[in-house]
């Protein structure tokens, strides 16, 4: 079981004052909390609330997550069309068959003609993208997976495999790196605050908030690694 020694000082609240806790999805005409909030949720979909108050929807059978308001029939149709189009696009790519069996999609900022589509595997800890100019699926930088963990943390009863251990190791090493004079995005005091919040959320078994914490901290850890030249080459040319 992953663990971090408790920090010396507590700080109030369940937020990190040095990391802005934003809402990922602004409420607009297609947002879940808009005027059509009274409409029923379509069959097969469930509503989830992010620790920051964001609302998103998830269809477990389709492995599809969206913050757009699928209570509105037209928005639901846009989301389903975008999913179908994306799957048709990648169907002939040999890399599609190599995806982990737990791959899932996110679709956001939907309209009649555009959508932002993400593809992820919790088991592999990876994010994927379709490269139109190359005509193939490729692995994205790890920070995109962490962003997914932070943005949609509320629909699973556990954290992605290995992520908690990775987080604990990174935070534990951060102090040593600072004391060795390395450049890092966090101060030692801020690392103590991260540790304190992690310990508090873990004690409460607050999986959504833990997912958010891991997701927002780990990309910054990667920035620190790049600052010191220790991050492996970016995965632009990796095959699946």
Describe this structure in words.
The chain is α+β, with helices and mostly antiparallel strands and 240 residues long. It has one domain (35-227). The chain is built from 6 helices and 7 strands, in the order βββααββββαααα. Strand 4 (104-108) and strand 5 (116-121) form a beta hairpin. Helix 3 (142-151) packs antiparallel against helix 6 (207-227) and helix 4 (163-179) packs across helix 6. It is globular, with a radius of gyration of 19 Å. The model is unreliable at 3-12 and 226-239 (pLDDT under 50). InterPro entries: WW_dom, WW_dom_sf. This is WW domain-containing protein.
Give a topology summary.
Elements: E1 46-49, E2 55-59, E3 64-66, H1 73-90, H2 94-98, E4 104-108, E5 116-121, E6 126-131, E7 136-139, H3 142-151, H4 163-179, H5 188-204, H6 207-227
Helix pairs in contact: 3-6, 4-5, 4-6, 5-6
Protein name: WW domain-containing protein
Domain WW: 39-72
InterPro entries: WW_dom, WW_dom_sf
Quick structural summary:
By secondary structure, this protein is of the alpha+beta class. It has helices at residues 73-90, 94-98, 142-151, 163-179, 188-204, 207-227; strands at residues 46-49, 55-59, 64-66, 104-108, 116-121, 126-131, 136-139.
């Amino acid at each position: 079981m992953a663990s971090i020694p408790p920090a010396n000082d507590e700080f109030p609240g369940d937020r990190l004052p040095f990391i802005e806790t934003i809402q990922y999805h602004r409420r607009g005409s297609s947002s879940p909390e808009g005027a059509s909030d009274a409409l029923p949720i379509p069959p097969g979909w469930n509503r989830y609330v992010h620790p920051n108050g964001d609302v998103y929807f998830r269809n477990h059978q389709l492995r599809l997550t969206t913050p757009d308001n699928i209570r509105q029939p037209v928005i639901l149709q846009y989301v389903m069309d975008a999913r179908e189009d994306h799957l048709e696009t990648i169907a002939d790519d040999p890399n599609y068959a190599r995806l982990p069996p737990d791959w899932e999609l996110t679709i956001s900022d939907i309209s009649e003609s555009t959508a932002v589509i993400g593809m992820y595997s919790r088991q592999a800890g990876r994010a994927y993208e379709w490269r139109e100019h190359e005509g193939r699926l490729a692995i994205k930088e790890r920070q995109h997976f962490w962003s997914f963990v932070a943005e949609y943390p509320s629909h699973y009863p556990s954290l992605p495999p290995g992520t908690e251990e990775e987080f604990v190791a990174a935070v534990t090493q951060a102090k040593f790196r600072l004391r060795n004079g390395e450049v890092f995005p966090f101060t030692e005091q801020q690392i103590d605050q991260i540790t304190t919040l992690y310990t508090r959320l873990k004690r409460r078994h607050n999986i959504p908030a833990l997912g958010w914490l891991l997701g927002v901290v780990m990309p910054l850890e990667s920035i620190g690694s790049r600052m010191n030249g220790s991050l492996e080459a970016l995965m632009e040319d990796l095959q699946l």
